[in-house]
Structures are given as structure tokens and as C-alpha cells.
Amino acid sequence: MQIVYNSEQFYIVAYPSEEAYEVVDKTAGRGSFFGGDLAHRFHDSMRDIAASDPSTEAIDEFIANFGLTLTLPAIYH
Q1: What domain range is 64 assigned to?
Q2: Closest to 12 measured CA to CA, from 52, 25, 50
Q3: Exposed/middle/buried for residue 39 (C-beta within 10 Å: 0-12, 13-18, 19+)
Q4: φ/ψ (deg, to 5) at 65
Q5: H/E run at residue 48
Q6: Which of 29, 34, 50, 70 could crosslink 39 through cysteines, CB 3.0-4.6 Å?
């Protein structure tokens, strides 16, 4: 498990051994777990946006595009 991104709005964790990502929208209290092809596309897209040295707002805006997939309630423990 590796924390990839952590802002006031979003939290992203990579699970390299599973080739998967967990994305949580902190304000909505929703998240999702991406594996397989979606995880690979998400990784490639994050790599591309990071290459442009974006602001936190730009990264949050990019992640917000995945909002419809964030359907699982976030449970903190």
C-alpha cells in the first residue's frame, strides 16, 4: 500500500501488488477501488497530469472526473 495523493478533497492509495488504486472523495464520503484496465488507464492519466507540474486544484479537478465511479461509502477506522 502506498499513498499516492492526499489533498483536502481526495485521497489516493496504490496497491502495487494488486495493480489497483483506491480513490476516496473526502467531502462526499464516497470512494472506489479500481483494478485491471481501469487502474492502468488511471495510472497512465495520473502520470501524464503529473508531468505537467499541476496545481493541487488541477489534480483535484482531474480526479473529480471519476466522480460517477466513486459509489462506495468511505468508512474510516
Answers
A1: 2-73
A2: 25
A3: middle
A4: -65, -20
A5: helix 36-51
A6: 34
